[in-house]
Amino acid sequence: MLSHSRCLTRNFGRSLSAILSSLLELAVAVVLALSLAAVGHGQAVTLQAKDIVTVKTPAFAESVTEGDVRWEKAVGDTVAEDEVVCEIETDKTSVQVPSPAAGVIEELLVPDGEKVEGGTPLFKLRKGAGAPKAAEAPKAEALTAATPPPPSAAPPPPPASTVGPIPTTMPPVPPVPAHKLFTDSHNFLIKVKMNRMRLRIAQRLKEAQNTCAMLTTFNEVDMSNITEMRKSYKDAFLKKHNIKLGFMSAFVKAAAYALADQPSVNAVIDDTTKEIVYRDYVDISVAVATPKGLVVPVIRNVEGMNFTDIEKARKNELAVEDMDGGTFTISNGGVFGSMFGTPIINPPQSAILGMHGIFDRPIAVGGKVEIRPMMYVALTYDHRLIDGREAVTFLRKIKSVVEDPRVLLLDM
């Protein structure tokens, strides 16, 4: 009986030891699993944090301090590397902000139209996100193609239009969200906010009108020789320099030559100190029309350039800092078919040359009437600084150089 009790005790102890050992192993396994899960979760969080980047506003030029944000992407949109996410409209131009990597827009940190400065956080990007969706897209398309719609299915009828009459033509400007819409049975008005560039243009032109005593003088240029020269050498010029030869280079060079001859046209009045500032260099602004407004990129030190240098400078990509510092402006309305016009001064400059279209007209040549390609040119100048004699002499100098470029070689 005692032996039987000892046997039962021994068996019970062994069973208890086995149970305790199993429980210990299970506890160790659970703790290990929880530890791995915690570590894995921490790694996932770390990777997720590393995959989200904040994109900031790029640095502006010295003359620009702020701009307005215009979003081209929304939260949840997939973007490729270097794809434009938004534009920042400044007083002078628009600065595009590209995506630094492929991914998905996680958050927009600035409302549309908000003012921002250099270094302001703009949006958060989740790098690499959205790539699996792009990879699954062909499979979804294949599945859709493999399952044709029922033959009895008919396309739903188009929804009834609830919009009033829409004009058939619109001006070529980028789409701008309408703020207010007034409609009746016949007419409609849409109010849109002026962009920053248009506001700055309006301000500067009004300042010029209020400050300068503007006067315009006119002349006409026989384009026969320059047209023949361009026709004879345009192919060779393109082959050698990989750039086309245009008429603008001739007028830019002629203006630089005339500005050296008439320094007062290249000068400016400093209204603060009541002094006349003369420049010994020629930086010519060439007005360019864009959908958002007129911009005037500057070609610097034109006095030391030839036709090739000018054409290459005009084709280069320009930054915001290239919009400042011109001493004289050329505006070419002829590209739009303008025959005649009076340009307005681009402050703080003192004069502007207006080019117009080239049209065949009968003129007197050596006592005979001939048909020649002619262009009207106009010089608007600040009469506070420039007298009529200097203005007329300046415009005649441009006329003589364009009509016969050999004048440049002879320094006449």
Summarize the structure.
The protein has helices at 2-51, 131-146, 196-211, 224-241, 248-261, 307-315, 388-403, 406-410; strands at residues 52-56, 66-71, 78-79, 84-89, 94-98, 103-108, 115-117, 121-127, 180-183, 188-191, 214-222, 268-270, 275-277, 284-286, 288-290, 293-295, 298-299, 328-332, 351-365, 368-382. The chain has 412 residues and is α+β, with helices and mostly antiparallel strands.
The main β sheet shows up as: 6 strands, mixed
Kindly report the name of the CATH homologous superfamily of the domain at 214-410: Chloramphenicol acetyltransferase-like domain
CATH class of the domain at 214-410: Alpha Beta
Query: Could you give the order of strands across the largest sheet?
Result: 11-20-19-18-14-17
Query: Helix content range of the residues, please?
Result: 25-40%
Task: Compute the separation of the termini in Å.
Answer: 141 Å
The H-and-E topology, N to C, reads as: HEEEEEEEEHEEHEHHEEEEEEHEEEHH
Mean pLDDT: 78
Please give the radius of gyration in angstroms: 36 Å
CATH topology of the domain at 214-410: Chloramphenicol Acetyltransferase
Strand segment count? 20
Mass-distribution shape: elongated
SSE order and pairing:
Blueprint lengths: L1 H50 E5 L9 E6 L6 E2 L4 E6 L4 E5 L4 E6 L6 E3 L3 E7 L3 H16 L33 E4 L4 E4 L4 H16 L2 E9 L1 H18 L6 H14 L6 E3 L4 E3 L6 E3 L1 E3 L2 E3 L2 E2 L7 H9 L12 E5 L18 E15 L2 E15 L5 H16 L2 H5 L2
Parallel strand pairs: 14-18, 18-19
Antiparallel strand pairs: 1-8, 2-4, 2-7, 3-6, 4-5, 6-8, 9-10, 11-20, 12-13, 14-17, 15-16, 19-20
Helix pairs in contact: 5-6, 5-7
